[in-house]
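Researcher: Next sequence.
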Amino acid sequence: MRRSTALPKPPAGQPLPESHIWQTLRTLFPYLWRYRLRVLAAMACLIGAKVANVSVPLVFKDMIDGLSGKEQLLALPVLLLVLYGTLRFSTALFTELREILFARVTQRAVRQVSLEVFGHLHALSLRFHLERQTGGVSRDIERGSRSISSLISYTLYSILPTLVEIGLVLGILFVKYDIGYVIITLISLVSYIVFTIKVSNWRIDIRRAVNENDSAANTRAIDSLLNYETVKYFNNEAWEAKRYDEQLIKWEDAATRSQTTLAFLNLGQQAIIALGVTAMMWRAASGVVDGQMTIGDLVLVNAFLIQLYAPLNFLGIVYREIRQALTDIERMFKLLNENREIADAADARDLPSGPLQVNFDAVDFAYEANRQILKTVSFAIPPGKTVAVVGHSGAGKSTLSRLLFRFYDVSGGAIRINGIDLRSLKQSSLRTAIGIVPQDTVLFNDTIFYNINYGRPEASRDEVLTAARAAQLHDFIETLPLKYETRVGERGLKLSGGEKQRVAIARALLKNPPILIFDEATSALDSATERAIQMQLEHVAIGHTTLLIAHRLSTVMNSDEILVMSDGHIIERGTHAALLSAGGNYAKMWALQQQEDAASSTLATSTPKAAEA
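Model: Next structure:
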């Protein structure tokens, strides 16, 4: 179907509520007021620059009148020329001093707000990050940070100087001439400002639509690129391009409406300025003809008009940019207002040092109210012991590790370490005491060394290499051209699943915490490597309180206790030998996996013979 080329009618304006404007400004103000001395000094420079700027036409008027008099003195124009040049330079001097004084304030404010948003995002719960759209969030932060600088610059360098200059000019016109000039100027200014605000507010929804569609398009693009291999697997490049273009079409329509309505705004502004200038010059010219004003007065009024309307013309653009900046900053500050969900209690304390015991006491948990994952789960991991949890997918095994890290709070019951409820501990202290090898290893787009060293950034290079050897990774790294400086690519995509998992194991070994979690730690490894690393993990687990989550039962045989989970419940528990003797679910799972391993071994040994034949 052919799309209509008719320009859609812009929606009725719904400006950013005043409460939001003031809330945004109140949130931003403390970041600036920390440098109040610089701010006040910059304001003094601003006023000095405008006083000098407004004095220039006054001196120029006296020069004109002095040169046009019948008995002119040469000394008078020369002195005025020197004063004229001095005032011109003073305007530039005070302006640049203001820039120098305020530059640090602006950049520091941008830095501190960006850092606070970044820190807050890391403090938000896993639930937020599972639901977020990375492209949209990154674009919100980028635009918000940039808009803080824009807002400060436009306010300090455009709005305030223009308001100061308007006040000074109106005062001079009132003192030196009659009230008519002041009235004409005020009518022109008020008309211009009211028109600009009304039309800009009318356009604000269009500008928001541009931003919303820009963020949405960016989100789709990033999501598609992050899943590059999946796109290729299913030959869906055209489908992805079509989805991306659907969002770009919406952005194109909104951007077109924004541009055309901007032209209407500019045209109306110029019409108001033209009428105001014409009325002022007509009145000044009439005064000269009537002998009530000199040629210098006419030049003075004209110069004032140029000084007023030049920045005023730019003021329309500035107002639009300030409104847009406020909208962008509001979106970024909304991220700061996101509920942290998991926060330290006011009296939270550090985890005590020494051997640690973990207890799950009648734990209930649900990601969503209508889908309960864990149901009255109770077990203990004594200090230095290993407890394994096995079961089919969806039984709730990995949820145990997320709750132990306190990515979520339990719905019922409690998780305790040495008898202390996790909710009474500082999260930083808790997570320092736990190391994990997750089921799905995601790496930073940096070197192999950086990704291993991330487990303990202050570790020495020798310690990093020792951890790599323990994870059966060192020999592989040494075969690479750049060795430990090899970059792993976005999310570690340049490495195989097994190589990524060994990096994760090395990282956890380097951290060497008192509590270890292995969540399917060897699931992506071949049998030979799995056996080698399994022996190493069992050695590493000695003296550590260890939670071992596994699907392959061969990896949990030597655990001190094995828990069998199904549908959120623990249905069996005991040692490997005891569970086999019981002949329950564990025994059935063991028998099934033994059959699968036997079949795989038979296939592996028969393949070479077939190839020889």
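Model: The chain is about 65% helix and 10% strand. The first helix runs from residue 18 to 33.
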